Amino acid sequence: MENAASGSEAAEESAPIPLTEPTEGTPPVVTDPATLRAACARLAAGTGAVAVDTERASGYRYWPKAYLVQLRRESAGSVLVDPVALDGDLSPLVEVINGEEWVLHAASQDLPCLAELDLRPARLFDTELAGRLAGFERVALGTLVEQLLGYRLEKGHSAVDWSTRPLPEPWLNYAALDVELLIPLREKLEAELSAQGKLEWAYQEFEAVRTAPPAAPRSEPWRRTSGIHKIRSPRKLAAVRALWEARDELARKRDRAPSRILPDSAIISAVLADARTAADLQALPVFGGRVQRRYSSHWLRRLQAARVLPESELPAPAGPPEGPPPVNRWADKDPDAAARLAAARTELTSLAEHHRLPVENLLLPDLVRRTCWQPPEDRSPEGVAETLRAGGARPWQVELTAESLSRALHATA
Q1: Superfamily name with CATH number, domain 221-313
Q2: What is the pTM of this model?
Q3: pLDDT single digits (tens) 109-131
Q4: Where is the signal peptide (predicted)?
Q5: 215 vs 323: CA distance, rounded Å
């Protein structure tokens, strides 16, 4: 796919300018109610959309909550808020920004933890999603800022432990830069989308992200343990489940990322080795460490419980079906479905290339698979359109794809 060009040519002509700190300097972190009220007064006096970002402690903490909230608004400057120091009470901020348009990058990552703080946008502009729809091959924030605005952002602290207190000044500088250019980036992307005739598509996508319900919990999350494909018997699967659940309980209690309590590889190695004693367990990688030795009895009790579990309580070799089978099995299970999917992929790829956008943004791959595996009785464009709408496709997607998908659904092996 070619890059969108009209909005980026000028920025590409010269070397990007390094942006190592915010224009007005890195603001102090808001940690008390009085300072929060003052910051909210500045934001309320500002104009236009509000740039918003969060920093979480993914990989360090169990709960995906926000440990820092960054905001910026025209004429108000940037604000850094510590929700932990404020006990999660950001009600003055709720009053100021919940009725406004927010600009975020990869909004679906930040909206859930913001909602936990009662922060919810009235309207949304997602710069990452806008970049995808505009046809940019790389849509990381730094890449889009460099290509469209001619600045190179200071990066490098995205994977640090944001639950650390006090937060180091270089981290705060990085966090403030994440909202420094979101508003001008929004303006460039909006102009690009308008020039390509895709602005209405983008607004529909943003609204879908804004109003998306919380993700439903998986019925058997332990089956996602990395390396579980090595485990064949129901009895050993029960042991994986037992260790996964024991780890999850500890992780919740201690608010630690599960992988920091016990990595998936250690769970699989303990089950494959059929460890029965502390010596057996401690002879394995990871379990011989000082911290893990303290938990040996905890893990062994769970493994022993799995060994004596009644047959009726053992897990099935495979989890409950969640949609169609893997695509590589379609040719054997249902050759006509495989033919429909191949035709659909050809049709949709051609459409996506014509409109210069990723095929997965043209129509969700899972919706395509489900429709091809179990097509509607009415395979006309109108019948397919109804199926797509029921599956969550937006109006612009239905309009573009219903006819092509209808043709594909008539394909047979």
Answers
A1: HRDC domain (1.10.150.80)
A2: 0.92
A3: 999 999 999 999 999 999 999 99
A4: none
A5: 16
